[in-house]
Amino acid sequence: MNLQIDEQRLHSELETLATFSDAEPPAVTRIVFTPEDLNARAWVIAQCEEARLAVRQDAIGNIFARWVGADPAAPAVGTGSHIDAIPNAGKYDGVVGVLGGLEAMRALQRSGFRPRNSIELLVFATEEPTRFGIGCLGSRLLSGTLSADAVAQLKDRDGEPVDEVRRKAGFSGNLQDVKLPKGYYKAFLELHIEQGPLLERAHTSLGIVKTIAAPASLRISIEGAGGHAGAVLMPDRKDALCVAAELILVIESAARSSGAMDTVATVGVCDVFPGAVNSIPSRVRMMLDVRDTDLGRRDGVMQTIEGASQKIAAKRQVSIHSELVNADAPADCAPEVSAALASSCRQHGFPFLEMVSRAYHDSLFISRIAPTGMLFIPCRNGYSHRPDEYAASEDIARGTLVLAESLAKLGA
Ligand code: GLV
Ligand code: MN
Ligand code: MN
Fold it and tell me: What is the distance in A from the centroid of ligand 1 to the CA of 356?
C-alpha cells in the first residue's frame, strides 16, 4: 500500500478551520454551538462529503462520517477528536485528530485500499467543559458513562438548559438515542497533540499512549459577607475572596505534597461577586480541576481539600460548599490497538515513546466501550490551551500517516 499524506492540504485545512473563531488570531475561541462552532461544523461536514463519506449527526451533535467497508455489518474502526476550543486557545487541540483522521481516510482511498470494516470519522461534540461545566459530553453519552437524564439537567454558563441550547443549534433528537450499541466499534484511535513537553524534550515525533489520567472537577461556592470597603473594619469581615485565596493555596499544596508528580490541581475559574472595587466580596464561585494517573491518590487529594476547606470555613465563619461535577477513573489503552500503532511506526522506522496522557480526551470514555488507542505528536514547548500552541506540519503529517496505516491494519 502506497500511502501519501497531502501535508499541504492538511496544513491549509487547519488554517481554514482556525478562521472559525471568536478571538483575534492567532487565538482561537470556538465554544460549542456558538455561530463560529456551527459554521466550523458545517465546513467539516462539507469536507467529509467531498470525500464521499456518509455523514450523520446525533442528538448531542456528535458527527459521524463513514467510509462503508466491504462488510457493512461488521463493527467499524473509528477515529476522531473534537473541534470545539476553550477561550483563547490555539489551532491544534482536537483539530489535528479530526482533520488528520479525515486526511488519513482520504490517503487510504487514494491508495486503492478497500476496508473490510467500515472506517468512521467521529467529531465529538462538546469535548471542552467551557459551556456546560463538564467535558466530553458527546463521548460520555456515546459510552453511556453519563445518562441522558443527567445531561438534560445541565445548564450552560448563562443558565440555559442543554436541551434549549441544542434545539437552537438544530439538534432536537432524543438524548437516550446517543448511546452506541454494544460492539459498535472494533477499535477506536485518536490522534492528538501531546499538550506537554516530553516528546519535544526526547526529540521524538510520536507517542503511543498507555494510560489516560483520571480527571475530576468540583464547583466550589463560598458565601461570606459583603459590605462597604471603607467602613467595615478588618476584624468584622467575612471576605469570600480572602477565603478563596487561602483555599487555593491549600489546593496547590495538597497536589504538590501528594508524593507523586502525576498529581495536578488547578483553580481555573474564580467569579467574584459583586465585583466592585469598593465592595467586600460576598460570594465566590470557583471551579477546581484535579487529576492523577492513580485514582486512589487523586481521591485522597480531593478529601484533603474538602477537609481543609471545612476548617477554613469554620475559622473564617463563612460557608464553603463543594459540588462534584465529575470524577472519572483513568483508562488503559487497549494493547492490540497500541500494537497496531507501534507496528505502523516500526514499518516506517519512526521511533516512538510510550506515554501517559495527562490531558483527558474523548478516548477516555470511548475506551469504556471499545478497544481504544491514542497517538501523540509533539507541540512546541508543550504549550496547549493557549494561542501560541503549535504543531509542525511534518509532525502532523507523520502522525496522520501512522494513523492511516493503523486504521488499515485494524480495518482490513
Ligand atoms: C481537555 O481539554 C483537558 O482539559 O484535558
Ligand atoms: Mn482541550
Ligand atoms: Mn483535545
Answer: 14
